[in-house]
Amino acid sequence: MNPICNSVHVRVPATSANLGSGFDTVGLALDYHDELTFTLNDDPSDGVAHVIIHGEGEDTLPRDETHLVVSTFRRACATLGLGRLGFTLEATNNIPQARGMGSSAEAIVAGIAAAAAFAQPGELNRAAIFDMAAVIEGHPDNVAPAVFGGLTVSWDFMTAEGVGSVAIPGGEPLHGGFHTINYPVDPAITAAVFVPDYELSTEKARQALPKEILHKDAVYNVSRVGLLPAAMNPVVLAQAAAQGGVESLGAGVGAAGTGAATAVSPAAFATAAAQANALLFTATQDRLHQPYRGSLMPPSTELIELFRSKGYAAAVSGAGPCVLVLHYGDARAAIDEVAASQLASGHWRALHLPINTTGVEIERS
């Protein structure tokens, strides 16, 4: 198969995984991107990859076939039936490396999306990109939001040995492997990411986790992660309140009704918005991973504890050491004030970011 174009530009968002309670399942796309351009070599016999890097990692990342984008692109090209292509990869990296903002997921998704754009016309087959990316990454929590945008919850559906799928009455068979679902996020939800000047490898962070956990800790996290979709989209709470499903956070939150959307009064929405920050605070509580990793990143742990003592929904971003603070409404000044001493030290910088809702984007030329 021959490529259908000469150049592909790929734009992939940063991501934050876990969000506290959703260990290895929940991911969020952030409006902060790496941008990569793949341009085929003029000489068809030149099958070499030439790599140019600007920004993050320009002094440390490899510039040969071992670069994760290049190796993933090669693997995807082989799967899609493209021959060995020679190309120049020019990457402008904004996403910090080894900080918990999904840099490896970005690289994997970029390589697969570029190969798909060279091989197939039209819109990207995002489901296929997700399937391949999750297998390569080994877990879906970062690749899902990088592909689809927004808030994602992913899982690995395990079938019995020799069984590839399970028949679902009235629907398509449910195949074994990784799956994801995308939840809407209110545009007023913002993410503040505090980036330290030190790194932490995901492998080292995983080694700190126990092999077994207490049942009560599992229940604790399950009860928190179930709140995230509602906390990230307070209009659902407002609609439920209009239908009589919500009284107050303290009294408990009822299920939103089904059917046509219910008109929401400004007062009901204001109440739901206030509840959103309380729910975000609760939903980002965790007992499965952050307590065990805290000793690997004391400055990050201290910053999280500081934010949470002030009522902000703070958590480790991915495996760390970045710190994520989620908030409904504009609280940039107040959030920066909490971390004023850290920011003044020169060891931290803050990124105030909207939520990305598009996921990976490509442009052919």
TrEMBL record:
Tagged with keyword ATP-binding: yes
Segments forming domain GHMP kinase N-terminal: 68-150
Full protein name: Homoserine kinase
Any one GO molecular function term: ATP binding
Gene3D superfamilies the UniProt entry points to: 3.30.230.10, GHMP kinase, C-terminal domain
Transferase recorded as keyword: yes
This protein's UniProt keywords: Amino-acid biosynthesis, ATP-binding, Cytoplasm, Kinase, Nucleotide-binding, Threonine biosynthesis, Transferase
Major subcellular location class: cytoplasm
